Amino acid sequence: MSLLELDDVKVHFPVKKGLFFDRTVGHVYAVDGVSLSIEAGQTYGLVGESGCGKTTLGRAVLRLNDITDGGVVFDGTDLAKLPGEEMRAFRRRLQMVFQDPLGSLNPRQNIESILSEGMAAHGIGKDQAERREKIKDILAKVGLPSNAMSRYPHEFSGGQRQRIGIARALVLEPDVIICDEPVSALDVSVQAQVINLLEELQESLGLTYLVIAHDLAVVRHISDVIGVMYLGGLVEEAPSDALYAGPRHPYTKALMSAVPVPDPEVEDRRERILLHGDLPSPANPPAGCRFHTRCPWVQETKCATERPPLLDTGDGHKVACHFTAEIEAGTVKQTLATGIEAVTGTETVAAEAEEVSEGETAAEPEAAAPEKEEAPGKEEPATVPAQADAAKTADAAKADRAEDSPKA
Ligand SMILES: Nc1ncnc2c1ncn2[C@@H]1O[C@H](COP(=O)(O)OP(=O)(O)OP(=O)(O)O)[C@@H](O)[C@H]1O
Ligand SMILES: [Mg+2]
């Protein structure tokens, strides 16, 4: 049994209207049927574009949001149905690290006070002296000097503040840490340091992570398994290497095709799969496959009417698409990118659509293969050029640092 198991979790926020009578006129389907499991000591990376429900899912695990339906089984106990009083005992074991370290630290409290608050609430340490010792120890673990205790959040840099956020989680001796965009607010070089720190802490303390990010490059090295989320649901889940070597869901393919490849020759041949249209509103998600309104491979049957379940396509590589096998085999071709309709149907738009579709249909199968083979090569820092985009540089810096034993 996995340490943390989510079973068809749904979080729907009611949309209210009216000044006097709070009428519920609809729902935001922020998380709509997510099942996943995280093994003890492993890292699950959750990626997806803004608004797809990642934070809501993370918060639901800690019961910071009400769970509309489904189960969150942690260490054999279903938290979703636990009364508040009993939930408190589990809160200590599941901690969260937030994206914005400054916003989540009280500016009027010094670090000792911030860190000991939770400890006192959970009865860790018999007196303040004992808590202070523990805090000193944890601050050293996250790479901060012990004199940090008497200082205030504004006196630290962004990266240091995130270390404080991590320390605040660690002093409570958690089993699971949910890191919501832990490095998004940080400088590229600092991102790598913080990711490295998380990895070191996982090794020394045996932690289990759920790492949320909108950037595939950030979660790549740290994750054992990666889940790709689209509009409230998982569309693909696979061991990290398998996902990068060969994404199978059209949405993941599109996300990956947007990531520059460090090899200039491959980069020149790289085909981008362009998604048309915006992310539909989670208050009014499309019927059938959530992605069908933007999917370059959308078919006339099934896609608009049946929601595809997340199924194992072999080797634990799960995909939620009716046509995975056909797309892999090349027996269904890219159709018109339907999202183009959103730009209003003039002749020029239609022509452009055909152009895109044709170009991609012809080039995709051949071009995708070498690109995918190239992906694992990114592990060698030497192949990563300095001008690569921010996330890629973080990746490289991280790989570099991993070699010359990272320090604070
Ligand atoms: N308390 C709330 N009440 C109503 N709607 C909400 C609430 N919290 C989130 N939402 C909606 O749920 C959807 C998912 O939001 P969420 O913050 O989980 O996305 P996200 O994937 O974390 O995005 P980002 O990458 O921008 O952080 C959004 O449409 C958001 O507007
Ligand atoms: Mg978020």
From TrEMBL:
State the superkingdom: Bacteria
InterPro entries from the entry? Answer: AAA+_ATPase, ABC_transp_ATP-bind, ABC_transporter-like_ATP-bd, ABC_transporter-like_CS, Oligopep_ABC_C, P-loop_NTPase
User: Which Pfam family would be a valid example here?
Assistant: ABC_tran
The protein's matches in SMART domains, at most eight in alphabetical order, are given as: AAA
Q: Where is the composition biased (Low complexity)?
A: 382-394
Q: Which GO terms describe its molecular function?
A: ATP binding
State where composition is biased (Basic and acidic residues): 369-381, 395-408
Composition bias type Acidic residues, residue spans: 352-363
Instruction: Tell me where in this chain the ABC transporter domain is found.
Output: 4-256
Where does the record place the region Disordered? 350-408
- What are the entry keywords? ATP-binding, Nucleotide-binding, Transport
Q: What family classification does the UniProt entry report for this protein? A: Belongs to the ABC transporter superfamily.
Which NCBIfam families does the UniProt record give?
A: oligo_HPY
PANTHER family, alphabetically?
D,D-DIPEPTIDE TRANSPORT ATP-BINDING PROTEIN DDPF-RELATED, TRANSPORT ATP-BINDING PROTEIN
Q: What is this protein called?
A: ATP-binding cassette domain-containing protein
Q: Which organism is it from?
A: Streptomyces durocortorensis
